[in-house]
Amino acid sequence: MVRWAVILLAWLVCGASIAQTVRVGSKKFTESVVLGEMLAQLAGSSGAEPVHRRELGGSRILFNAVEAGELDAYAEYTGTLMRELLAGEAIGSPEGLRLALAERGLGVSGPIGFNNTYAIAMLPERAEALGVRTIGDLGSHADLRLGFSNEFMDRGDGWPGLAGAYGLGGLNARGMDHDLAYRALAAGQLDVIDAYATDAKLAAYGLAVLEDDIGYFPRYDAVVLYRLDLAERAPAALAAMLRLEGAIDETAMRVLNERAQLDRVPEAIVASGFLGETLGVSTVAAVESRRARLWRTTREQLVLVGVALGAAVMVAIPIGVVAARVRLAAPVILGAVGLIQTVPALALLVVLIKPFGLTATTAIVALFLYGLLPIVRNTHAAIVAIPPDLRESAEAIGLTGFQRLRWVELPMAIGSILAGIKTSAVITIGTATLAALIGAGGYGQPILTGIRLDDFGLILEGALPAAAMALVAQFLFDGIERLLTRAPASR
Known about the structure:
Helices cover 60% and strands 9% of the residues. The chain is built from 22 helices and ten strands. Helix 16 (329-342) crosses helix 18 (360-384).
């Protein structure tokens, strides 16, 4: 009996180690997704259970997620770590970087093999016509239209530092999606954009990279950033992922990016092919069919919208009633829910990541908060608008406050309340597409991927179902409103 107990315990321990989950993240640009697939597939080749959280936004979101233990590893760049993520620590060497990360429970691999530094690019004919060859030459042309990625606009090693170093503060630069900037440049709507040295689109668009004449940009050597406790939890997976050290040079990375972004080969297949050819690691590339992907994103969208809207209805109607009945509370309640509505959705999502993490809960809480205002406002307005003589009549026949609410006020306000819920539902469905930025899924996922890959079909795969869901919600609530507010048939 004891022997079987020992065998069972050993099996459970071995099974637990084999099924150890390793969570890999990636940013929302192609190279990061490809590297994330490589890390996930390498971890899987060791017997671990890999989970790839794709396209999670910018560097700060992923770095914080690894530090908080929500992710185990992702591909980062030394320049980003030293000049942006750990900018206040004056790190000047790889050893200093390693020590600073270790204090946070993080480790860093050796260089993967390529330097993906920032670059400033123009159409060659435009650069030649203006006589622009270096970044410093931009200062002589105040009318240039500059469009930089949103992250580059805010990073310490991005536009603020670059403009200060080169004296370009007088130029007009605006932030936009990185992939859309390429299209705008090709269409003649922009003159200057930021790029990465290994961007596939640099060659595809035939762009001229301006010389960094004062050497402002540091090296951005790609590395694997990981949690140190991974060495204890899944040592084989960590060892497998670290096989990427020195495995990819700039030319190889550019070719991989071209296959994924220009040839539109799924990143999982690109990664699997490279690992097999270069490292001799055989992996399985899991690629969803369009039907399976649509079904998954629909389920995710329904959960996000359904839970958030249901919670908003349950909370907003009582709050609206309180605002209507307690005059002193009305300005505070309406002001608070109105203030929430003014906060940009993306900013609210980022703020909520700290308490709730990179989970669907974060998105649901944000959507819940956004859904309050229309319902609260309509509930308050409808009850306040009830004629005073009806209230007096209800009081005269001895109805309690709750009975007046149940039998008089809510029935009369139901049309307005339903209109508020309908408005909230439409807002929630549209805003839920941003949940993909924190890995919460939904229809935003194919939209983000479609923008990144310049794939209009993928964009429509998310946009059209979202619009259809909003229309269905509107018709549904219109029907409920007609059902609940129609006059009883006369006899």
